[in-house]
Design brief:
Chains A, B: Keywords: Hydrolase. Chains A, B: This is Glycoside hydrolase family 65 protein. Chains A, B: It comes from Flavobacterium cheonanense. The structure is a homodimer. Chain A is built from 20 helices and 33 strands. The two termini of chain A are about 40 Å apart. In chain A, strands 1, 9, 10, 11, 12, 14, 15, 16, 17 and 20 form a ten-stranded antiparallel beta sheet that branches. Chain A is α+β, with helices and mostly antiparallel strands. In chain A, helix 5 packs antiparallel against helix 6, helix 10 (about 450-470) crosses helix 11 (about 500-520) and helix 11 packs across helix 12. Chain A has a domain at about 15-65 and about 80-305: Beta-galactosidase, Chain A, domain 5 (Distorted Sandwich), CATH 2.70.98.40. Chains A and B meet through strand 22, helix 14 and helix 15 of A and strand 22, helix 14 and helix 15 of B.
Chain lengths: ~775, ~775
């Protein structure tokens, strides 16, 4: 736990004091991104201490050769790794002939990092005494432009405090980088070309195998006390992958020498000629100028916050937590490009590889759907539609036929790139989340057009998979689903996971409903799709047989659905009664012990109750929550949010609040002692859900918004906005009342605790 | 399948004709060994074609750093690999200045390999036309001395047929070898010292990490037409790991130039100073001389065959098969050294690593017990006793306490060195086989002394493990064993595998019985052990609670025990109805598909019926055989033998014969298309059991031998010998009668088909 290390603040993430042991954690927490690229908060200058260097470009990946101990049939040959991109931020510094290195200074004082989330700008400042006795004050400002998303900006100021100084700024760009997460220590980038002229430089490199080309660029301006001195490099070093300029500037005591570095990437995903594109980006950046770039950045973030902010009054840590989550989600994905998706670590690290997990459909889409234009969610759905052929191929590798689709557990381009049989081959519930997201999109946006245009083909591929994957048990005279891993990855290769079976049945039922609806209402789409997928009524009847006769494990004694067959055979000792020294079990116990224990990594049966709340009574939810929650260890980042929502639904506000804090400050407080590897991005959308769906009780039923507002006793009030079908509804919940107001042009009716409430444009309704 | 490639012959394995594609397979099949070392049938001379070079020393291994995709808690850091030892057989050859290379000859004719199993000698001969037009005839003889088990002998003869020749023999020894099976392509040997004098040379090298030192040595003698020409090297090349001599000899047409090379290894397991030891071995070898060494070899093998041969009349392929199995078992392990064990590939390859699996206890001990002095089986038991502390440590790593022992799945020195969670952590039935072997040893030999001296401590550690590993299911009000892999590795992480549960119960019951017996009859051993293991009656009562109340999955409908919970949920399509194109499923199907199928890799429930035949009626055996055999794909080498025995027990002789052929000729006919990786050594003991226990129906009950002789219709007769309590009983079965005769000094009573028969020394009894 990192608790109290990050200063509580409503709008900023703040670290005070330099602690070499915290550098890697802070590099994760202070990461910046603009949807198109992002980077860890590495120092610009040389640093000899422990660091994890990382800069990432959306959509650019590397298929690393798979590493396994024992090969299993069906494993992919390659694993798409999040690819550390060339370094554009680097600025080596020499001061009075000493290499400036924070790890080597005599003293470092007033060290402060501030990630100003309101502005989308990362600040760092400190004073230091060098080995040579010179005291300096340093201020660094860095941001990745939202407006020009190929451009990053650094303003690096040094002021000598106790003497004059000769400062050499040595900015560089370097494609000679390696991945922390590499299976075989191979190089992933092949340098192609290094060019420079005046104060600009370009390193063009290409990924091996995938052949993405990226031009990394920089442009440097030197200022003295804020005025451009029109400096040129006094020296240029280059090799085939790196170029470094040296600028020398003599500064009198208490004067300030500044380097402004523009940098970034232009890539072959977006440009024919990446170097020309880079030149254009530099030209545009220079035309706007540093001050305006910074001002524009603040404006652009203001626009994002205008829509997506959640305010919490009376609880600074809770406020900081939710804003950190919303900020990171927006840094990671802005929804402009349907080729992109939301990686589990965003731009903050490399772990896990791949950019797309079922997290997108189960956790992220609700956030983007409610805080952005609905096109964003549609882009996320389209991403999967575009990968349908690969999902069919993937299913084919596992022996499925006739257009059955199995979406991969982890992917960059639609191909499976995970290799652990119990997950890769068996955590098939992911397929259901993809169908559920289509349903959820339509439920929320009312936009049915996606289904006849694209979604129905996906639903058919998924229904085919479930039909083929189910087994008819003559013994039970029902269909069973054998050998799966549910969302609770602390069980492997189990039979009849309730969540999976329930979702499978629902997927088939939903697909059949949509086929019937499209047949009636979208005749030409229907003909096009049916001739493409070659589906007939006989096949649909076979699907229905599976859905209508699916087996669900159930305990009469406890009156609950069982997580899987045999769950009751376990030694049912509650987490509460487990010795604390045994936690977290994923660090303390061998894998077999975890597997035969009753402990649940993340919501599993309860995930089903979350998706299909309407299918069950509140009493059923309560019974299942009371049965499963005591065995849940929440060792997945995706767990506390679902429990927070359900605790709130069950009016257990203290529990809901505890889960909320855990989900919202997971990384800030480093609950799992692993934040130095990067932040948990996708679960951050779960934090948003905890407030809006949990405390706010927001649901969409019959094309109408419903709320059951609740508020933790610790808070004075909270507010959020929902983009509901192109009207923006603001909800402000206080201890005794809830206020609704509307930015839009036509009234809407919402239900508050079951009571109809009319909200008219630009007027406040208090309930 | 390799069928008909190896010529049918009663006593030899014969290959005729040179086929470069078969070289690696033949290298496995023609391997030689003497229990202390062994090697693949690699050519002595340089060969540029595809080859798998391998020479191995018993007890010398390397802990290779584990390679996994996704680390699981509990995995060992290192995996003990079968270690390719330095090369001592190498003899490069130049003939009229051309490097002789079978892959480059213009023609190769009359190529023949013969592994004469009666003699224990490997012969190779051929004629060839070199690129330079010279025709030569070559004869090579090689063997590893049984009498001097550190010594190998090569006699290499070349006769030019169509002209005179200058022949340069360039024998070498070389520690610069690598393992085919290496996780990280690292070097495993560190060269220490290279020495030579006269015609002798020594390369001393040490394994990294384990620090085994081995001196590899050679001594060379050159002969012309059979007479020693007292040649000295004309050239000596050496570096820090290799030394190579050159001998030049001019040979007239049709004269014969021979090199006799003595070589081998002396190792720090057996000697303080390995080089001095090597010098002694050479001196002894030279003293005896080539002709006598060869003669002694034939005599030594005759002694082995005298006791362990099985004859089969009227079926050459069946005869060749069983002799190949007996021969390979004796090449691999002779039982002299309790530090050694029986690796799954013996000295024929590296695959799987480790030298000790449960194969030893379940399959090999019966063979060694009946064909060797009983000390050999006792040595194999002692091997596990000596590793008890490591087994307790191993259990500790998985969370078990208080002296519970879990023997490793794979080991060299007692430490677990396998890393696949579903096997390493869950294939725990192996522990039961180790207890069963103690019971079986006592049953067969009548030697109880092993139990108070050593065995009881092992039984206690194992009983403690099962007690702790079982879980009390309040739901069933019985003990269950969750999350295991049975002998059928096509199921992973199942609950209540019948075989495992049954064995666990038996282990506890048997341990308690032995504790009680030792308490009464071996008081001082009892006190010693009890104070060492700190066991009291309360603990024993806890064990008994588990054993007395163990749950076994059972189907009323089928009246069979179920392989595991949920087996009946599977789609029960019999192997017979499976499309042939889908076989073998381990090559054609993805792992998840195999897991959810009903297909059984090897006897599982039936393995339990094999161990505990007496606990069940013949009707029960028949019911279970009929239920499980149709789902068994026999994709493990350990499967057909058990089925052959049970088919014979059930009087299904055609089926028993088919299984017998499959087990006995598994490698010769290359059923699994993998013999080039090495032979399946441990399953060869199963072949022996198929005849003796299957066809012969041999059992030991109440200290007496029982037989129910049967004979396949394809055979005229077969015979085998049994060392039963230091008397040798010979059994000859013919279509209509069985003859018994005894080498020993006191009569014994046996039961034949339930009828008492008295066999007196040196007289033949016909039944």
């Amino acid at each position: 736990m990192n608790q109290d290390y990050i200063k509580a603040d409503n709008w900023s993430i703040i670290e005070e004091g330099f602690d070499a042991e915290r550098v890697k954690s802070s590099e994760s927490l202070f990461s910046i991104g603009n949807g198109a690229m992002g980077q860890r908060a590495n120092f610009e200058e040389y640093y000899s201490g422990k660091t994890f260097q990382g800069s990432y470009i959306a959509g650019i990946y590397y298929p690393d050769k798979t590493k396994v101990g024992w090969w299993k049939n069906g494993y992919p040959e390659y694993f798409a790794k999040v690819l550390n991109a060339p370094n554009w931020i680097g600025i080596d510094i020499e001061i009075n002939n000493e290499v400036f290195d924070l790890a080597k200074c005599k003293t470092v004082a007033n060290f402060k990092r501030e990630l100003n989330m309101k502005e989308g700008i990362y600040y760092r400042s400190f004073s230091a005494t060098l080995q040579n006795g010179l005291e300096i004050s340093v201020k660094v400002t860095r941001f990745l432009s939202l407006d020009i998303d190929e451009l990053g900006v650094i303003n690096f100021e040094i002021t000598p405090l106790n003497g004059d100084a000769k400062i050499v700024y040595k900015p560089y760009i370097d494609a000679g980088v390696h991945n922390e997460d590499a299976n075989w220590e191979e190089k992933f980038w092949e340098p192609l070309n290094v060019q420079h002229s005046n104060n600009e430089a370009f390193v063009t490199a290409r990924t091996f195998k995938t052949h993405f080309t990226a031009t990394t660029f920089m442009q440097n301006t030197i200022l003295l006390n804020g005025s451009n001195v029109n400096a040129s490099p006094i020296n240029i070093e280059k090799n085939n992958e790196k170029v470094q300029f040296s600028y020398e500037i003599n500064v009198a005591k208490e004067q300030t020498a500044t380097i402004q570095k523009l940098g970034g990437y232009t890539v072959s995903l977006n440009h024919e000629n990446t170097q020309v594109a880079a030149q254009n980006v530099i030209a545009e950046g220079l035309k706007i100028g540093y001050t305006n770039l910074k001002e524009n950045q603040i404006q652009a973030w203001a626009k994002i916050w205008e829509m997506s902010d959640i305010t919490i009054n009376g609880d600074v840590k809770a406020q900081q937590g939710i804003r950190f989550n919303i900020f990171q989600l927006n840094q990671t994905y802005l929804g402009k490009d349907s080729r992109l998706n939301i990686g589990p670590k965003g731009f903050t690290g490399e772990k896990y590889g791949g950019s797309t997990y079922w997290d997108t459909e189960a956790y992220c889409i609700p956030f983007y759907m409610a805080t952005k234009d609905q096109q964003v969610a549609r882009n996320l759905l389209t991403y999967r539609y575009n990968q349908l052929d690969k999902a069919i191929e993937n299913a084919g590798k596992l022996g499925f036929k006739n257009g059955a689709a199995l979406y991969p557990m982890v992917t960059m381009n639609g191909e499976e790139c995970h290799n652990e049989w119990e997950i890769t081959f068996e955590e098939i519930h992911r397929n259901g989340a993809i169908a559920f997201a289509i349903f959820n999109y339509h439920r929320f946006t009312g936009d049915y057009s996606y289904i006849p245009e694209k979604g129905l083909e996906v639903l058919i591929g998924i229904a085919r998979f479930w039909h083929q994957r189910a087994t008819y048990s003559t013994y039970r005279n029902q269909y069973v689903i054998l050998g799966v891993t549910g969302p609770n990855e602390y069980e492997n290769n189990v039979n009849n996971n309730f969540y999976t079976n329930y979702l499978a049945k629902w997927c088939i039922d939903y697909a059949v409903e949509q086929i019937n609806k499209v047949e009636k209402e979208y005749t030409s789409d229907y003909s096009r799709i049916m001739s493409k997928v070659n589906l007939d009524n006989a096949e649909i009847a076979h699907w229905k047989a599976v859905a209508d006769n699916m087996y669900f494990p159930y305990s009469k004694e406890h009156d609950v659905y069982l997580q899987q067959d045999g769950f009751l055979d376990k030694e049912l000792v509650k987490v509460h009664d487990l010795d604390k020294s045994q936690r977290p079990i994923n660090q303390k116990w061998s894998w077999d012990r975890i597997l035969r224990s009753p402990y649940i990594k993340q919501a599993d049966t309860l995930q089903g109750f979350y998706f299909f709340e309407d299918h069950f009574t509140k009493e059923q939810l309560e019974k299942h929550f009371d049965f499963y929650e005591p065995f849940t260890v929440h060792e997945s980042s995706l767990s506390p949010c679902v429990h927070s929502i359900q605790a709130a639904t069950l009016d257990r506000m203290e529990q809901a609040y505890t889960f909320y804090l855990r989900t919202s400050r997971l990384d800030l407080d480093d609950y799992n002692k692993e934040v130095e590897e990067g932040c948990h991005i996708t679960s951050m959308a779960g934090t948003w859900m905890s407030i809006v769906e949990g405390f706010g009780g927001m649901r969409v039923k019959n094309d109408t918004l419903h709320f059951e507002p609740k508020i933790p006793s610790q808070w004075q009030g909270y507010s959020f906005k929902i983009n509901f079908r192109n009207q923006i509804l603001k909800v402000e919940v206080q201890q005794n009342e809830t206020k609704f107001s509307l930015e839009g042009n036509k009234e809407i009716t919402v239900f508050v605790n079951g009571k109809e409430v009319l909200v008219e444009p630009n007027s406040l309704v208090t309930v």
